[in-house]
Amino acid sequence: MTDLVFYEKPGCVGNKQQKALLRRNGIQLEVKDILSEPWTAESLRPFFAEKPVAEWFNTTAPQVKNGEIAIQKLTESEALNLMIHEPILIRRPLLHYQSLKQSGFSAGEVLNKLGIKPEADQDLQSCPMAAQPCEVPL
Fold first, then answer.
1. Does the annotation mark 127 as catalytic?
2. Using an 8 Å Cβ cutoff, are 84 and 56 in contact?
3. In whole angstroms, what is the distance from residue 8 CA to residue 132 CA?
4. 137 vs 89 pLDDT, higher one
5. How confident is the model at residue 138 (pLDDT cuts 50, 70, 90)?
6. Which one of 8, 55, 68, 125 is least enclosed by Cβ atoms within 10 Å?
7. E strands present in the chain
8. 101-105, Cβ contacts within 8 angstroms, sequence gap of 24 or more
9. How confident is the prediction for the chain on average, in pLDDT?
10. Catalytic pick from 4, 9, 12, 27?
11. What does the pLDDT look like over 18-51, one tens digit per residue?
């Protein structure tokens, strides 16, 4: 049906479930590695739209989970700089469809436009492996 650019962390269980739902709905995916993408502030910022800065972050990333990074206190510029240097910090997935972009697998412009509503009984945004820190694959 449609090509959706889906930025994932390779091996992420949550991203695997999200991709399966999209494919079940006939959506063709162009899957990209969020960790190896050459991000800039200009290329990354549009994915977050009007969300507060703290909602831009992957809360299971080790630096966030252990309190090393106080996401509530960051400016947009500080947040983008951190994410560019450590993409594991970016809330996944990043979705790009036509001119629309969004972060996270919850209600937003991209999923709304595609008619995707994650099943009410299944949280596809939260990490199913939340007990373990989100690590960068070696």
1. no
2. no
3. 18
4. 89
5. very low
6. 68
7. 2-8, 27-33, 94-97, 100-103
8. 101/46, 101/47, 101/49, 102/47, 102/49, 103/47, 103/48, 103/51, 103/55, 103/56, 104/55, 105/14, 105/18
9. 89
10. 12
11. 999 999 999 999 999 999 999 999 999 999 999 9
